[in-house]
Amino acid sequence: MSTPLQVWSYRNLISNLAQRDLKARYKRSVLGWLWSLINPAATLGIYTLVFGLFLGGVAPEMGSGREGVFALFLFAGLVAWNLFAGVVNGSITSFLNAGPLLTRTYFPPECPLLATLAAVLLQSLLEVSILLFFMIVVGNLSWTFLVFIPVFALLSCFALGVGLVLAVLNIRYRDVAYLTGILLQIWFYGTPIVYSLDTVPENAKRIIQLNPMNAYVNAMRRGVYYLDLPTLSNWVVMITSASVSLAFGWWLFSRLAPRVIEEL
Amino acid sequence: MTADAIVVDHVSKDFRLHKDRATSLKELITRRDRKSGADHFRALDDVSLTIPEGSMYALVGHNGSGKSTLLRCIAGIYQPTSGSVHATGRISTLLELGAGFHPDLTGRENVYMNATILGMSKKEIDDAFDQIVDFAGIGEFIDSPVKIYSSGMYVRLGFSVAVHVDPEILIIDEVIAVGDTEFQRKCFDHLYSLRKRGTTIVVVTHGLGTVEAMCDGAAWLDHGVLQMTGTGGVVTAAYTDQVNARERAERERVAARAADADPDGAADAEPVGSVEDLQIETVEFIGADGAAADVGVYHEPFTIRMHYVARKPVTNPVFGLAIHTSTMVHVTGTNTKIDESPVGTLEGRGHVDFAVEALPLTPGDYEVTVAISDEFIQHNYDRHEREYHLRVRSGSDRQTPEGVMDMRGLWSRTTGDRTATGSETVRR
Questions:
Q1: Which residues of B34-72 are buried (b: 16+ CB within 10 A; e: fewer)?
Q2: Do the beta carbons of residue A193 and residue A208 sit within 8 Å?
Q3: In this structure, are residues B98 and B138 in contact, taking their beta carbons and an 8 Å threshold?
Q4: pTM (2 decimals)?
Q5: How far from B215 is each of B202, B209, B234, B245, B424, CA to CA, in Å?
Q6: Which residue from A72, A142, A215, B226 has the highest number of Cβ atoms inside 10 Å of its Cβ?
Q7: Which DSSP symbol is given to B95?
Q8: Which of B22, B76, B121 has the CB atom closest to A106's CB atom?
Q9: How many CB atoms lie within 10 A of CB B249?
Q10: Residues 233-262 of chain B whose Cβ lies under 8 A from any Cβ of chain A
Q11: What is the ipTM, given to two decimal places?
């Protein structure tokens, strides 16, 4: 079992793997790094068009008292979701792709997943800066924006835990990757991102509140959109889900990884 | 220097066979009733060995004997099913060259990546970078994506990174053989200097010459079972014996089958002829008096006589012999092709002699190998690998030189050289 300390001693490798991911990602594309802006912008545009304009989604009033902007309301939640989904999907592929490396040289098998986490976090920070820019433009800003830091930290742990489990199971059962694709879609719509929790019926609301992602999205929104602090229950859910997920994921991964490496 | 760098303690390794593997959830559920534990393949079976610090150690064995699995267990990539492996020191592995090279990234970026994987820090890589590129002979290509590299460049860069990690333990699978001869020589030189600096090197090899020449120790694996360990020479000798025996058995089996299938003209089917066509019956040593002798005498006439039996006419077979010391140093070897003495067409019984006027071997114990192969030395008719023991004793009235061989040199002295003249004058 690799301890976090052992993994830490390989931080050089992790940062190099992350750099390699980022460097290789946009090689041979004309727009290069711009794609990491274009991609979220396109998603945001589509969701705003469909859910805001066509389906008439209305954004609540902002923390500054300004009239709600649906695109920003959506973006605040989407940033958190993108981090989560990016880490989960990235974990599965990065562990699979690390196969040729892991069977030829020894390093803690957690490293490629942590590298993915680093790369996704970087992308998320980029998205947060864009969000920040627009919040400044509309004049809806307060120090509560900084809430994104603890939220990102906890969300990273939560997502990494889920990613570790799925990545290691996926080696033996490739169904996991396909199943994850579907489950993430359901999860996305089961989290109040393209809609507000206030607009759903009471009994559906209760079910959604069981979803830990709801706490992250809500905490993020409170900080950057409503200019308020996350609720106590948000904190409790985030801290509990993050620690349980990471502890379980790490334990299962270090138990199974040495055995599945042979099958990579 | 007597400490053990690697201790392999009763290591066994099982692999699940793929046919037993449920790769989808459906299979997992429908095959639940299957007894688990069946269909396992044992790649290593209770292997124990120790590799001393600073030594060069070879693993030999045929394909699939578990050598690579053992290397991976030592490197920590595989965990043994039972038993344990202890390795002391920083391990660098060279299991497949250029593993981890990303085709789209440049040579430079890949060097940094690969060296980091092998455990080097950024600063260490900066310091070694020029050396790495220089050793690999990549030149200006270092800033091009590695996918445009030739396979040779790929291999050289991979090797160069792995050896410049300055590892305490270096683990190498059969990868060096890929480069050209010049690069191979460079590799061996580098390995040699690493060993001198105290690096423990574990290498899997089929190039048995390498093992004999460079390795302090060796282990022979067969189907996952450790056959023997010992010095490089002894282990390779045993291994070669077995390979030869198998080859002979295989050839005999093929010949027997051909004879069964086609009792009238069995041998015609084989292009080179059947091994039975020409065999060595016995080998005799003939001493100075022309009679058979048990021992050779240093600096006296000596003949190795090979009695053959040719069941069919065979044209220009090549007779060869080799002499090893009892510690497996290859002293010399030659054949009728090297010496340009064709034997002509053989039929029936006869003998071929190899005679020396004065036996140049110093007193001691030697092993003699004799063999007959076809004209092109492609195919052995017969080979007796170190089956004949030769003891050489000193002649009564002659001092013997040191080492195993007499150089037969002539000493002489010449006066009147420019530098020497002056001093002689003074002395006079």
A1: eeeeeeeeebbbebebebebbbbbbbbbeeebbbbbbbb
A2: no
A3: no
A4: 0.72
A5: 9, 10, 11, 24, 49
A6: A215
A7: S
A8: B76
A9: 10
A10: none
A11: 0.73
